[in-house]
Amino acid sequence: MDGDSADVTSAPRPPAAPPETSFPDVSGPALPSTEIETALVAYRSLQRRRIVVLASLLALLGVTFVVNLALGPARLGVHDIFRALLGQGDVGAQTIIWRLRLPYAVMAVLTGLALGLAGAEMQTILDNPLASPFTLGLSAAAAFGASLAIILDWRLPFPFLGGEGAVAANAFLFAIGSSLALDAVARLRGSATNTVVMFGIALVFTFQACVALLQFVASEDALQDLIFWTMGSVTRATWPKIGALLLACAIVSPFSLRSAWALTALRLGEDRAASMGVDVRRVRLASLMRISILAAIAVAFSGTIGFVGLVAPHIARRLVGEDHRAYLPAAALSGCLIMSGATIAARNLVPGQVLPVGIVTALVGIPFFLGVVLRRPAS
Amino acid sequence: MREAIQDSLMAGPLTVSYGRRRILDGVTVGPLPPGSITALLGANGSGKSTLLRALAGLKAADGAISLGDIALGTLAPPERARYCAYMPQTLPPPIRMQTLETVLVAMRTDHSSHRSNHIAHALRILSDLGLASLAHRYLDELSGGQRQLAGLAQALARSPRVLLLDEPLSALDLRHQFEVMDVLRDETASRGMVTVIVLHDLGVALRRADQAMLLANGQVVSAGPVSEVVTPEHLRRAFGVEARIEISSDGRPMLLVDGVA
């Protein structure tokens, strides 16, 4: 410091205009009103187009849902389906619809919704297009939890649950545990999202190694069960599970939509969002909690279903952009649609057999995954 | 003078540390009167960006920050966001959103309905910055410089009373650098903003800023009118270079750097 004080009171070169503190208001030369009108029309039509896209996704989902109910070894017409749904008509058809096809179809839609929404939020808060419950270790952790129950019969947390319930409970515990760990890393390292992604990848490898270790010591029967579990399937759907998943989606998604502005602002850059008044840390933690709940329950009930959480957000981004008011519902609907379509394929590709849906989604997902990776410009 | 001080930005002495490392050490800012542009100068790592982040409330600092009689330092983030807009050095990421949309997102905290006067406001800022034709283009289709301008539009559109910009010219070509500085001059004067800009180009600072603050090692080397701050003696201390200020043929000050001191 020298003689100059840090005092900068000298008057600015041009005479300062009287301080006016107006909020968004047009000052200075106004633009031609036609230009504003054009922009307004363009903006409104953009919003309308988004609504049309969302409605189309919903309609398409409706179609796949009905197809899902109609297709199968026993041919049922739309008329039969509706009668069966209302508890009328042929008892056999009623049983097929209520015990098999409807739970599968509903489970597929809800699993897709949970994974699509979780993936969309995850990619936003971690600022990484490759983030998803699958790529960051939630699924691997769930598989490890499940394998503890299947192979070692380890079911300490809920001793009153039998068999399948224990597998799901274990899977849930490990999935939520791993997302809490992701959470903790995000807390400790603050905003360094790359660290969180690295940690997630470390989780994937750790839990995969643990599962492999258990597979190595497993009996043949247990191994069979585990492999089937890890392939991911909606055939384990039961109405109580559907109820739980529905409840989770119903509770979590309104909070997601309420954060739409903050999440959109976050896409403009973390510091920018913070300067707009977004409490970045809180938004990120709340979002991670939502992701944990959605993904953990979905994976616990349906097993490892990869790529839905990864691909659905990319489809949504292409279709409606990244205004999260449209992007989040679009990702959720895309997830539903992928799962619904994959379930149709899984149930009908091989006559008389229901393929694990995880196989089908992965086969659809891999080319897309590569496409996104290869298309991403080096920056 | 009294009036000017009433709405001026004042801070300090500010102390900011990252862990044990002290980045800012008792830095006093202002009072910076409304309607003025202050250039924040200094070598790499001198604490310019940290000071700007501290003023924006993004980095916790010891010391008071106030705008007139509003204690900015004690406001909650959403409240403070009504007064201060900050633009970081990093360019806005190439996301799938139209330029106009991103400006609208920046403008409104509830963003539920965009009335036509908001769109008119956003559009005017965009056209001032020469971005009107890009209003409906997606950010992931724009060049780095265009995205930097879009980021500037996001900050300006919020009509802040304090505008804090971290190297807003870094990705711009020569013409755009001066265009942007002219827009900033106009907006600063007409809205009575307190504008603080981290600048690397001392030439731009000499020609377009009202005041300057020169930092070195987290301390103020000099602060005041630009011509008193940018002197050979100060530049030697802050940057370690030998430099001269010559008066060019049009009577304006010009900086010539001869080499390392």
Structural write-up:
- Chain B: Keywords: ATP-binding, Nucleotide-binding.
- Chain B: This is ABC transporter ATP-binding protein.
- Chain B: Residues 9-242 form the ABC transporter domain.
- Chain B: It comes from Acetobacter sacchari.
- The complex is a heterodimer of chains A (379) and B (261).
- Chain A has 379 residues and is an all-alpha fold.
- Helix content of chain A is 72%, strand content 0%.
- Chain A is built from 14 helices and no strands.
- The longest helix of chain A has 38 residues, at 33-70.
- The radius of gyration of chain A is 25 Å and the shape is globular.
- In chain B, the strands form three sheets. In chain B, strands 5-6-7-3-8-9 form a six-stranded mixed β-sheet, sandwiched between helices.
- At the A-B interface, α1, α9 and α10 of A face β2, β3, α3, β5 and α4 of B.
Task: Set down the secondary structure blueprint.
The complex is a heterodimer of chains A (379) and B (261).
Chain A (H helix, E strand, L loop, with lengths): L32 H38 L7 H8 L5 H35 L12 H14 L11 H26 L4 H25 L2 H11 L8 H20 L1 H8 L2 H6 L4 H23 L5 H13 L3 H25 L8 H19 L4
Helix pairs in contact in A: 1-3, 1-13, 2-3, 3-8, 3-11, 3-12, 3-13, 4-5, 4-6, 4-7, 4-11, 5-6, 5-11, 8-11, 12-13, 12-14, 13-14
Chain B lengths: L1 H5 L2 E10 L2 E12 L3 E7 L5 H9 L8 E3 L9 H4 L3 E4 L11 H9 L8 H13 L15 H14 L4 E5 L7 H18 L2 E5 L3 H7 L2 E6 L2 E7 H4 L2 H8 L1 E7 L5 E8 L1
Parallel strand pairs in B: 3-7, 3-8, 5-6, 6-7
Antiparallel strand pairs in B: 1-2, 1-4, 8-9, 10-11
Helix pairs in contact in B: 4-5, 4-6, 5-6
